[in-house]
Structure formats: structure tokens, C-alpha cells
Design brief:
The protein has 244 residues and is α/β, with parallel strands linked by helices. It has ten helices and seven strands. The chain has helices at 20-30, 51-59, 79-97, 115-121, 155-164, 172-178, 184-198, 208-213, 217-230, 239-243, and strands at residues 7-14, 35-38, 63-66, 103-105, 126-128, 148-149, 200-206. The longest helix is centred in the middle third of the chain and has 19 residues, at 79-97. The structure holds zinc ion.
Length: 244
Amino acid sequence: MPDRVPLRLTTSWDDGHPLDRRVADELARRGLPGTFYVPRHNVEGRPVMAAADIRALAAEGFELAAHTSDHVRLPGLSREQARRQIEEGRHWLEDVLGAPVRGFAYPGGHPGRWGRALAREAGFTYARTTRMLCLEPGPDPFAMGTTAQIFHHGLPALLRNWLRHGGGGGRLGVLSDLRSGAGLPAAMAVLFARARRQGGVLHLWSHSWEIEQRDLWAAFDDIMAMAADLVPADGRLTNEGVSR
Ligand SMILES: [Zn+2]
């Protein structure tokens, strides 16, 4: 039998909703890593964790990273508005944590025209998109890709994600995995078998509020149990860890 190919695991959680606490507890229970992207406010109307709760996650070893000041999608903004959202989000979170913040995620997943340059200028070392279906973060640290959202996307949404981010044969295998099996954990099991064969970086992400809204906590629990079985402790990294 050949040695197992190297496989790393990272997870990310957007929007800083108070239910991120529940996600973090589950990750901690299984020794899994997590990066939490937190805005100061959310113009979409959802609550954001209190400063003390954000600090508690950081103290537990999770990565806390920026997600703009007000959770505004960058493609609709002027360059100056986008710059302000990105920089103010970073400064606010650094004040909350009393520590440098290196990571950023684009609200809605898309950098727009200026987002990548502005994220770099603001001092971040990487920025995550919502490009899915990847088993590597990709060559551009300001366009980090992901593997799969913990959410049961229909085929049209997956195809849109595949096309919008350049298509290409390499991501179709993951797309077909996510449409196989009965239910989300079964599809993830097929994807995880591919990750075990191919190696790379398995990047799972979602929103805690969406897991609640879609009643996906049991699926989330099953998927995290499988992830913990799949990836040894030395392959479990934050988003910043896989960006290097
Ligand atoms: Zn978001």
C-alpha cells in the first residue's frame, strides 16, 4: 500500500454571528481548526458577536479575521468606499483583539474590481473568496479558494460557481461528488474519499446562521466527525496556515 498522500484541513465561518460559539465548541471538541471572519456590523441585519466573545474564540486558538466593517459587498462600491470598508474592518478587529489581523474574506465572496489590491494595501497577507470545488487554495493569496460549503447547493448554484470562477476540468470532480449521495453528509463522504486519494487542502466553510436556518446542525456534526477521522492533527490548519 502506498503511503497516504498529504492532506490538510481548514475550515472557515463567515459573518461573526453569535451562533459561531456553537460552531467553535464543536470544532474544539474534535480538535479541528477554524477561522472566523467577523464584520463590526452586518447591514444584512444579522447580529454580530460581542467583543468579549470574539476575544474568547481567539484565546481558544481559533483564527479571527476581517470581513469589512459593515459586511458590504465590494463590487457595488467605489474604490474609496471599498478601501474604507476593508481598512476600518481590520482596525476595528485589531482593536478588539489587541493583536494583528492577517486574514480577510470578501463579503459575498467576490473581490470586485479593486478588492484584491485593496486587501493587500490594507496589510492583509491573504483573502478568501467563495470560489468552491478546489482542493488547493490556488496561486493567488488574495483569491483563496475553498472546497465546499456546508450547505446543500443545487446543481445550478454549483455550476454557476464553477463557471464564474473559470470552469476547468479540475473542479468538476468535486462538483460531481457534491451532487452524489443521499443528503449532505453522504455527498461529503464521497468528496472526502476524493480528498484522501488526491491530497491537497480540504477547505470547508459556511455560516452558523445558515446552519441554524436550514436545520443543518446534525449534518454539520456528522461532517466534522468525518473530517476529524480523515485528517491527522498535523494537517489541521487555520486559513492563514494554508495561505503560506
Ligand atoms: Zn459574509
